[in-house]
UniProtKB/TrEMBL annotation, chain A:
It comes from the Bacteria. Coiled coil: none annotated. The chain crosses the membrane at residues 51-68, 99-118, 125-144, 164-186, 218-237, 244-264, 270-292, 299-319. It holds the Pfam family BPD_transp_2. It comes from Azospirillum melinis. It is found in: Cell membrane. This is ABC transporter permease. Keywords: Cell inner membrane, Cell membrane, Membrane, Transmembrane, Transmembrane helix, Transport. It is a multi-pass membrane protein.
From TrEMBL, chain B:
The chain crosses the membrane at residues 20-40, 52-73, 79-97, 104-127, 172-192, 222-239, 259-286, 298-317. Signal peptide: none annotated. It is a multi-pass membrane protein. InterPro entries: ABC_transp_permease. It holds the Pfam family BPD_transp_2. PANTHER family: ABC TRANSPORTER PERMEASE PROTEIN YPHD-RELATED-RELATED (PTHR32196), RIBOSE IMPORT PERMEASE PROTEIN RBSC (PTHR32196:SF72). It comes from Azospirillum melinis. This is ABC transporter permease. It comes from the Bacteria. Coiled coil: none annotated. Keywords: Cell membrane, Membrane, Transmembrane, Transmembrane helix.
Length: 334, 335, 513
């Protein structure tokens, strides 16, 4: 029935369309390269990326959840849970088994989050906040409240310190994560469904999309990204820490926001998250190199995050131009 | 299906319910349940001393939760309250050392300023609440470190006189608890009886409509976040009073407990409803849980898990209960 | 009720001083020009109708009048005094009271608080109590619109119609110089509408000027004294007495020189495709049996609240039902399951396209392809170009304008958004049934023709089409037969060619002789 004559199939995606955050990244890089000694050295950049990779991988998961119109607060606590579970499982399950057990615990948290959001329509904010407490409390109970050291071994520290072809494993893992995220979002059916569900859940249901399945898959995949980040983090700290990475969820949200992803859902691209992560990673790295007191570091990070987000959301405001109300489609309701 | 089962049991709950708005019933229920369980299992739990202890301890969390309630009621979110409380605690201690007891008010002022900055970021500049308050969370922590020289506790010169306010029972409660109680009553009046409170509820109830009836939305948000900051500041002052020193690194993690207390206290996450009494009861529930488990010799982290479970459970209950009236009455009238 | 006629301050001939005089208004949204040269002149004590097609700039002009947005250019004078309202609050303080077509009530707050919303917004001081309307006054306001509900009930417990009445009561109760009624009757029954008009006439008698926006000519003719017609942001009829204009002249002014299309030739119906047996919306509704054949267009008509839209939605599996079965070409379909329905080839265009149809931030193309994502993906991967190949022909045929498939759907006009929803369903392979609610609500005349053509064309390719619309002309023009819906269930059937008056009678429950 479909008349295909006259259709000129064109590729619409794939055209490079840089987000505004790219300019923030470039600007910040130039400023730091000029103003911060040793910033632009290869060794430092490698270090910057290695440190930023954990944030990057977790931010990939946060991106999916934000596109779905949700928000994920339980990342930090589930990473902590993973580190504790990993270290506890080490003696019996070995290094691989330990990491697998840790990753499984994060996936379990993701599964619970996804089930509660998808099947019971609970607000994501509430669910992930509750799971933050459950997972964080669980980690502390398992560990008895104190960090437990892992016996040092090369295999255990490989995810954080190993290299493949001279490139640090965390950087490779982060690169692979972003590639996967881009593939998922731009080129898979699952990714497309996330956008549709996030933009308008009711419309998605009426279009014949099984909304709950899409949401559940999204939270599970977010959990998978977080699990990968948790493995690398656990390997790096070489211990099970119930208080590990308490700010991870906030940093990932900040990274997405700095990249220009609105928290309202239905929008966001992998490259935006990448830009946001790079901004925060460069910033963290530069304040360390500058050897500023922690207080100034924090003030600077706050200023850049807020500044970058304002630049995204209200560029005219920053330039002190009169703010124009957002364009509304005219008279399309009755 | 499980959802149907839950709905049916929710129906039963409604039938048994009182005239109190549904969401506000969760907190008292939790509190009574927790008290009953601990009273039955822990011998010393029901002692007068323990009750007084809980009654004195609960107020830091309660004040934070009351502040958070104002913001949640406008469909906002403030994750900086813990950091703001710490900064206020330090400011209060420093000012108290300089000017004596009246200096404690500086803590409240510091909190108010932080809150107004948040309100300006969210209301005037239109930033997402999570991002804006995350920014101020980091900045406020930095400020606390800055003014204390990297996180040193600020000891009070008149620590004895100040902590007496926090611990020595005046008639029944210590002065600080009386003050917190008065503040809570003030907050309740603000929500229930004041114009600002009514506008906050309106903004949360229907964000699109509130500007259409002539309310300045930005000013309402400024108010809500300002109040949140003020109450966080007051919580910080209370922390100083009870500890006898300014605590620049205290309060991390308190924001989550505060949100938890507000949520258990029935502050609808969809905005528009709030009850100070229920929020205080929510905070008391968390405190009872912490103290009771402590008396039992159980790890306090179990309490954290319990709070997490209660948050999710209260959400489940609330969505189910709230879906019921609309389920019955709006079956046809969709135009 | 105490109300002083504030407009009596005009001395001398009241016709010489306008209550509201708006002239030379221009307003641009980015590159789009909403208003070019709009004007509006309202006499005290008269009802002034504002007419115009969707997109003509009516709502922009109304928003400017009530202070919700600022014009780029132009002059506004209230009672002869040049004014510019910095916000809705200022306009309300000056006596310009809006009654909105979209409900601006606060569901968690009580009826009393909602009635007091303007006062709460405008009051100064600390306490809320003085800003609340006295209970007796509030009761009187509700009585005036015939609503007898508990003042302390949260508004979320009221039905949509009752909420509309609360909204109206709130507006009518204010001391006002100018009352702005923006399509107030959409959710009202005839009795409620009559009562509203009674109150409006009384306000007029007291000297209040009324700005009345409506699409319904009958209402306008019943109520209005003067009329202004907007077309493309320009006042083409500027404050002329309604009596001097015929309905045809008004329509021509609204539409410009559009050719009226005649009757469409409808295809010959074939074998039954969609069968619904014993369908009950609610447990108390009478069961409905509906059969729609291939190539047949069945219209569902009913007054607002009759359940016509709901019944149509249930036919598409978009709404759970109390009882009954659905089958497509003999295959049973569980009611209320859109996923299975789409798989069985049942398309659906919802009535509220913003809430239930559109993916605002996503590109037009992605909106159009949302029901067929599976079609152009293989092994979970989207085939490059597959989406465009499948959907572009439909977008072209439906004449998407501007033809920018990459543009976010929110940026299109209502008519083009509706085309996106339609193409979403037309692109479903093996489409058997197409259920369309309010196909052209808020849609301009050209898009309306295109959409009607597309529906007839779909029927021509053997699809069973169900059209439910509150626009009776639309139902009459498109349907092979019209099913009348009253009180949530079927109440007879009318053949094609039934006159408008006969249809109206049946909708209102009067049997034709």
């Amino acid at each position: 029935m479909m008349a295909l004559t006259g259709a000129r199939p064109r590729r619409f995606s794939g055209r490079f369309n840089p987000p505004a955050a790219v300019w923030v990244v470039l600007l910040l890089f130039c400023v730091f390269a000029l103003a911060v000694p040793r910033f632009a050295s290869v060794g430092n950049l490698e270090n910057l990326l290695r440190v930023g990779s954990i944030l990057g991988i977790a931010a990939c998961g946060q991106t999916i959840v934000l596109i779905l119109g949700g928000i994920e607060f339980s990342f930090g606590a589930s990473a902590a849970l993973a580190s504790v579970v990993t270290v506890l499982a080490l003696p019996s399950a070995g290094v691989t088994g330990g990491f697998a057990a840790g990753a499984a615990s994060v996936l379990l948290v993701g599964l619970v989050n996804g089930t509660l959001v998808a099947r019971f329509s609970l607000p994501p904010f509430l669910v992930t906040l509750g799971m933050l407490m459950v997972a964080g409390g669980g980690a502390a109970v398992l560990a008895g409240g104190l960090p437990i050291d892992a016996p040092p071994s090369d295999a255990f520290s490989w995810p954080a310190r190993g290299r493949i072809a001279g490139i640090p494993v965390p950087i490779l893992a982060a690169a692979a994560s972003f590639a996967l995220l881009h593939l998922l979002l731009a080129h898979t059916r699952a990714g497309r469904l996330w956008y549709l569900v996030g933009a308008n859940g009711t419309a998605a249901r009426l279009s014949g999309i099984t909304v709950w399945r899409s949401v559940l898959a999204g939270y599970l995949l977010a959990g998978a990204f977080c699990a990968l980040a948790a493995v690398i983090l656990t390997s790096r700290v070489a211990s099970g820490q119930p208080g590990l990475a308490p700010n991870l969820p906030f940093e990932t949200i900040a990274a997405c926001a700095v990249g220009g992803i609105p928290l309202a859902g239905g929008q966001g691209r992998a490259v935006q998250t990448l830009c946001g992560v790079l901004v925060i990673a460069m910033l963290n790295n530069a304040v360390v190199l500058l050897n500023l007191p922690v207080a100034y570091q924090q003030l600077m990070i706050a200023a850049v995050i807020l500044g970058a987000v304002m630049l995204q959301q209200a560029p005219r405001l920053l330039l002190l131009l009169p703010v124009r109300p957002a364009r509304q489609p005219e008279e399309d309701r009755s | 299906m499980s959802a149907r089962l839950l709905r049916r049991s929710a129906d039963g709950l409604r039938a048994a319910g009182s005239t109190l708005p549904i969401p506000f019933r969760v907190a008292p229920l939790c509190l009574i349940l927790a008290v009953a369980v601990f009273a039955a299992t822990t011998p010393r739990f029901l002692s007068l001393g323990n009750a007084a202890n809980i009654g004195a301890q609960v107020w830091v969390l309660a004040l934070l939760a009351i502040g958070q309630m104002f913001v949640l009621a406008t469909r906002g979110f403030d994750i900086s309250v813990g950091a703001v409380a710490a900064l206020s605690s330090v400011c209060a201690a420093m000012a108290c050392n300089g000017w004596g007891l009246p200096g404690l008010a500086a803590g409240a002022l510091a909190g108010l300023i932080c809150g107004l900055v948040n309100g300006a970021l969210v209301g005037t500049l239109g930033l997402q609440p999570v991002v804006a308050t995350l920014g101020s969370l980091i900045a406020v922590r930095g400020l606390s470190l800055l003014i204390t020289g990297d996180g040193q506790v600020v000891p009070l010169d008149a620590a004895g006189a100040v902590t007496r306010l926090g611990f020595e029972p005046m008639p029944v409660l210590p002065a600080a608890s009386w003050a917190a109680l008065v503040l809570a009553v003030g907050a309740a009046l603000l929500v229930g009886r004041s114009l600002a409170g009514r506008r906050i509820l309106m903004a949360g109830s229907n964000p699109e409509a509130v500007a259409l009836v002539g309310v300045d939305t930005r000013r309402v948000q400024l108010w809500a976040y300002g109040l949140c900051g003020l109450f966080a500041g007051l919580a910080g002052v209370l922390m100083t009073v009870r500890a006898g020193s300014g605590l620049p690194t205290e309060g991390a993690g308190m924001e989550l407990q505060a949100i938890a207390a507000a949520v258990i206290g029935g502050t609808a996450l969809s905005g528009g409803i709030a009850s100070v009494a229920a929020v205080v009861i929510g905070a008391a529930f968390i405190q009872v849980l912490l103290t009771g488990l402590n008396l039992q010799g159980v790890s306090p982290f179990v309490a954290q898990i319990a709070v997490g479970v209660v948050i999710i459970a209260s959400g489940l209950l609330e969505t189910l209960l709230r879906s019921l009236p609309s389920f019955h009455s709006q079956s046809r009238t969709r135009t | 009720m105490t109300r002083t006629a504030m407009t009596r301050q005009t001395r001398g001939d009241p016709a010489k001083i306008w209550t509201l005089e708006v002239s030379g208004i221009a307003k641009n949204y980015g590159a789009t020009c909403a208003l070019r040269n709009a004007s509006l002149r309202l006499r005290p004590g008269k009802v002034h109708a504002l007419l115009g097609e969707n997109g003509a700039g009516k709502s922009t002009l109304v928003k400017i009048v009530v202070g919700a947005i600022q014009p780029d250019r132009g002059r506004i004078a209230l009672n002869g005094v040049p004014t510019r309202f910095a916000g809705v609050g200022r306009a309300i303080a000056a006596g310009v009271i809006p009654i909105y077509q979209h409900l601006s009530l606060f569901p968690h707050l009580s009826v009393l608080e909602n009635l007091s919303a303007f006062a709460i917004a405008g009051a100064t001081g600390l306490r809320a109590r003085p800003a609340l309307v006295p209970r007796a006054t509030a009761r009187a306001w509700l009585d005036a619109v015939g609503l007898g509900c508990d003042l302390d009930l949260p508004v979320e417990r009221l039905s949509v119609g009752e909420r509309q009445l609360v909204e109206i009561a709130r507006g009518l109760g204010q001391r006002c110089t100018l009352l702005v009624l923006d399509e107030p009757t959409a959710a009202l029954t005839h009795d409620e509408t009559d009562r509203l008009f009674g109150v409006v006439r009384r306000l007029c008698a007291e000297g209040t000027a009324i700005l009345f926006i409506s699409h319904k000519f009958d209402e306008i003719e019943a109520l209005a004294d003067d009329v202004t017609v907007l077309r493309d942001g320009v006042a083409v009829i500027d404050a002329e007495p309604l009596a001097s204009l015929s309905r045809a002249e008004l329509v021509r002014a609204m539409l410009g020189d559009t050719v009226e299309t005649g009757d469409r030739a409808l295809p010959q119906p074939g074998a039954p495709v969609l069968t619904a047996t014993g369908l009950r919306l609610g447990p108390t509704d009478a069961p409905a049996d509906i059969t729609v054949r291939a190539g047949e267009i069945v219209g569902l008509a009913g007054l607002v609240g009759s359940g016509a839209l709901e019944l149509a939605a249930a036919l598409a599996g978009a709404r759970p039902v109390a009882a009954g079965t659905l089958a497509v070409r003999g295959e049973a379909l569980p009611p209320g399951d859109r996923v299975r329905a789409v798989a069985a080839g049942v398309g659906y265009v919802p009535a509220d396209r913003h809430a239930e149809g559109l993916f605002g931030p996503l590109a037009a193309l992605q909106n159009a392809s949302s029901s067929t994502v599976a079609l152009f993906s293989r092994g979970g991967l989207l085939r490059p170009g597959g989406e465009a190949a499948a959907l572009m022909p439909w977008l072209r045929r439906l004449d998407l304008h501007p033809f920018q498939p990459e543009r976010p759907a929110a940026g299109f006009s209502g008519g083009n958004q509706q085309k996106l929803l339609l193409s979403r369903n037309l692109a479903v392979p093996d489409l058997q049934v197409l259920v369309v609610l309010e196909p052209t609500r808020g849609v301009d005349i050209a898009a309306r023709e295109t959409i009607h053509d597309a529906l007839v064309e779909a029927a021509g390719r053997g699809v069973a089409v169900v059209v439910a619309s509150s626009d009776l002309d639309e139902v009459m023009a498109l349907s092979h037969r019209i099913l009348v819906v009253r009180h949530g269930s079927l109440d007879g059937e009318l053949p094609r060619g039934t006159g408008r008056a006969a249809l109206m009678d049946r909708l209102a429950g009067r049997r034709a002789a």
